[in-house]
Specification:
This protein is of the alpha+beta class. The protein is built from two helices and four strands. A four-stranded mixed beta sheet has the order 2-3-1-4, covered by helices on one side. The radius of gyration is 19 Å and the shape is elongated.
Length: 97
């Protein structure tokens, strides 16, 4: 039996809630993946037997996906907007603008 492994990551603490872990694992189980370890609230380590590769084309999702939850672009975009708003507010308070 040959095994393969992957890490599923989130850019927010998505795996802090057990319901989120269960929903991700319900989908991953369709591809034969099983939970090996919850590393932290951002990462899960999964494994499966390579014999499950034969069913990959019939799945409605990428069995090798490694990102769940919010897209990094959204997280970085919101962070940028908030940072610029704070800097602008500071400039207004000190009279630089």
């Amino acid at each position: 039996m040959e095994l393969e492994y992957k890490v599923v990551q989130a850019s927010t603490p998505y795996f802090a809630k057990w319901q989120n872990i269960e929903s991700v694992m319900a989908e991953e189980a369709k591809a034969g993946w099983r939970l090996l370890e919850k590393c932290d609230n951002y990462k899960l380590r999964l494994q499966r037997d390579i014999s499950h590769r034969a069913n990959d084309k019939a799945l409605g999702f990428d069995p090798y996906r490694s990102q769940v939850g919010l897209n990094n672009a959204v997280v970085y975009g919101v962070t940028t907007v908030v940072t610029l708003a704070v800097v602008y507010a500071i400039f207004l308070m000190v009279g630089a603008i």
